[in-house]
Amino acid sequence: MRITIKQQVLLAPATVLTLLVFLLIFMHYTYWNLSNKRREAKAVGSSFIALAEADMAARRLHLLLRGLQQTGMAAPEDMALVADLYERLLTAVDRIQPFGPLKDTGQIDRLRSLAEDLNPASSPDEQRIAERFAVFRAELSSLSNVTQIQLNKMRLLHEEDVTRLVERTTQVSIAVLALALVLGLFLSIYFSRRLLQRIQHLSRNAVTIADGSLVLPEAPDRIRDELDTLALSINRMTKRLIRVVGTEKLLEGAEEERRRIAMDLHDQSLSDLSSILRGLQGLQGLQGTSLTGELHEKTAHLTHELEHAISNLRDIMNNLHPQTLDILGLGAAIEAHLEQHCDSMELPEYHFYLDPRVEELQLDRTKQLTLYRIAIEAIQNVIKHASASRYEVSLEVREHNLILAVEDNGCGIIEKSNYQGRGLNNIRERARAISAEVVWKQSRFSSGTRFELTLHCT
Ligand SMILES: Nc1ncnc2c1ncn2[C@@H]1O[C@H](COP(=O)(O)OP(=O)(O)OP(=O)(O)O)[C@@H](O)[C@H]1O
Ligand SMILES: [Mg+2]
Predict the structure, then answer these.
(1) Is residue 329 part of a domain?
(2) CA–CA gap between residue 390 and residue 379 (Å, rounded)
(3) pLDDT at 161
(4) CA 173/CA 26 separation, integer angstroms
C-alpha cells in the first residue's frame, strides 16, 4: 500500500507530536498523583491542629468548671465562657478527619461521644467531671500521637515522592524526546528521499522530452498519489506531442509536395501550354492571307479556350501553393483569395479587416500556410452552407494572441446525420499542429456562426 504525499509529509511531525502528547499525559498523571498525596497530607495536618485546639479547649474548660464548683458561684459571664469553650471543643473535634490508619477504627467517633459527655449542662459532681476529662484527654492524646506519626511519615514520603517524580520525569522526558527526534528524523529523511527520487525521475523524463527526444515515459498502472497523477499527465502530454509532431511533419510534407507540384505545373505544363498559345496567336496573325474564314474562327475559339485553361491552371497552382503568401504575407494572401474568388454578385458580401500588428508577429512559413488554409476552408463553408448575405474575415492581435475570425449572418451550424465533410476536421487537425485553439459559436450580431482561431504568440 502506498501512502499519499500529504500523508508522507505529515507522518514525521505527526509521530513527534503524538509522542509529545504521551509525554504530557504522563507528566499530568504524575503531577495529579502527587497533588492527591499532598491534599491527604494537608488533611492530616489540619486534623492535628484540630486535636491540639480540642485539647486546649478541654483543659481550659476543666479548670473553669472545677473553679466554679469549688466556689459554688457562677456568674453569667462565667457561664457564657463555659458555653463558648465547650462550643470550641465540639467544633475542633468535628474538624478531625479520618485518615490512613484512623479510617475504620471508630476512634474519632468515640472521641466525639466522649466530647458530648463533657457537656457542662449535664452538671455532674466534680469527681465524675475529672474522670470524664481524663478519659477524653487520654483518647485525644492517643489520637494526637497517631496523627503526629502519620504526619511525619507523610512528610518523609512526600520528599521521596518529589525526588522520585523529578528523576522519573527527567528520564521519561529524555527518552521520549530522543525517540521523537530519532523517529522524526528517520521518517522525514526516508520519505523525502523517496519523494525526491520520484520527482527526479519525472524531471528527467520532462527534460528528455523538452530536449526533443520523444520517448514515451512509462505510465503508472494505478493512481495512488499526486506524483502518479503527474507521471500520467506527462505520459499523456508526450503521447499528444508525438501525435501533434507527427501531424505537423505530415502537413509539412504535404505542403512541400504541393509546392513541388505547383512548380512542376508552372515549369512544365504552363510553359507547354503557353508555347501552344503563342503558336495559335501566331496562326491568328496570318488573318486574311492563307487562312480561310472558318479556320480563323476555330483558331480564335481554341485561343480563347486555351487562355481559359491557362487561367484555371494558374488558379490550381495558386491553390496548391499560394505565391502571395511567400511574397506579401498572410493578410495579403487571404485578401487576394477573397478578391479573386469571392468578389461576385452571386456570393455573399464580404468585409476584410487586417490588424497592422499581425506583420510584427513574424509568423513562420508553416504557421502562415496553416492559417491560410484554415481561413480558406472557413470562408468556403460560409459560402457553401451559411446562406448568409454578409460575412467578415478578420486577423487581429489581442494580448500576444493572433485571432483569426470568420463571422457570418447566416443560418448557423445545423447538425446533419449524413455529414461526410472533412473541412471541420481538417481545420481542427491543422490548428492542433500549430498549437492553436479553434471554436465555432453563435455570431454576436445574428443567428449566424462565428469561427474563431486563437494562436498564442509569446
Ligand atoms: N459557417 C457555417 N454556417 C453554417 N453551417 C456550417 C458553417 N460551417 C460549417 N457548417 C456546417 O458544418 C458541416 C461540416 O462542414 P465541413 O467543412 O466539415 O464539411 P463540408 O463543407 O460539408 O465538406 P468539405 O469541407 O469536406 O468539402 C457542414 O456540412 C455544414 O452543415
Ligand atoms: Mg467545408
Answers:
(1) yes
(2) 11
(3) 82
(4) 10
**Ligand 1 nearest atom to the CA of residue 381, by list position:** 8
For residue 126, the enclosing domain spans: 5-187
Number of domains observed in the structure of the chain: 3
* CATH number for the domain that contains residue 409: 3.30.565.10
Reported as half-sphere exposure (CB side, CA atoms, 13 A), residue 193 has a value of 5
- Decide whether any atom of ligand 1 lies within 6 Å of the 416 Cβ: yes
Three-state DSSP at 301 gives: helix
Q: What is the pLDDT of residues 147-185, one digit of tens each?
A: 888 888 888 888 888 888 889 889 999 999 999 999 999
Question: Is residue 213 a part of any domain in this protein?
Answer: no
The pair phi, psi for residue 453, each rounded to 5°, is: -115, 135
- Its pTM stands at 0.51
Q: Which of 276, 294, 321 is the last residue of a domain?
A: 321
pLDDT, residue 133, reads 85
In this structure, are residues 211 and 35 in contact, taking their beta carbons and an 8 Å threshold? no
User: Which ligand is in closest contact with the Cα of 391?
Assistant: 1
Checking 84-90 for CB contacts under 8 A at 24+ apart, the result is 85/57, 85/60, 85/61, 86/57, 86/61, 86/118, 86/119, 86/120, 88/53, 88/57, 89/54, 89/57, 89/58, 89/61, 89/115, 89/118, 90/115, 90/116
Nearest CA to ligand 1 atom 27: 421
The whole-angstrom separation of Cα 68 and Cα 245 is: 126
Taking Cα atoms as reference points, which of 58, 47, 142 lies closest to residue 98?
47
∠ at Cα 53 (48, 58), nearest 5°? 125
One domain, residues 178 and 34: yes
CA angle 188/190/191 to nearest 5° reads 70
- Per-residue pLDDT of 107-127, as tens digits, reads 788 888 888 888 877 766 777
Question: Whose Cα sits closest to atom 1 in ligand 1?
Answer: 382
Q: What is the whole-number distance in angstroms between the Cα of residue 315 and the centre of ligand 2? A: 19
